[in-house]
Design a protein that fits this description.
113 residues; mainly beta; 4-stranded antiparallel β-sheet; 46% strand
Length: 113
């Protein structure tokens, strides 16, 4: 089970840190993913991180602004988001694949002045 949290309303240029609490599987041995979705649009993959937390990949749309990390002792995945833009407004999910498998409930991020 995956539960994302930490979203909210932020001004353009601001920052947020999302968290994702995992349970029911071996988190420490599992690649993890962040995705987002805007109503009416397809799910967009943002970032991936390997089980050990040392290898990560980012989509072009967020590279240099977003940072993925994890704490295996706490079964928690993070997404640090800096320099947020209005086009980052979306529902954010953590998941077990780039396609969004088992993504659970997301957290809303709204970037607006």
């Amino acid at each position: 089970q995956l539960q994302a949290s930490g979203g909210g309303l932020v001004q353009p240029g601001g920052s947020l840190r999302l968290s994702c609490e995992a349970s029911g599987f071996n988190f420490a041995e599992t690649w993890m993913y962040w995705l987002r979705q805007v109503p009416g649009k397809e799910l967009e993959w943002l970032s991936s991180i390997n089980s050990g937390g040392r290898n990560f990949v980012y989509a072009d749309s967020v590279r240099g602004r977003f940072s993925i990390s994890r704490d295996n002792a706490k079964n928690t995945l993070y997404l640090r988001m800096n320099n947020l833009k209005p086009e980052d407004t979306a529902l954010y999910y953590c998941a077990l694949s780039r396609q969004g498998d088992s993504r659970g409930r997301g957290t809303q991020v709204t970037v607006s002045s």
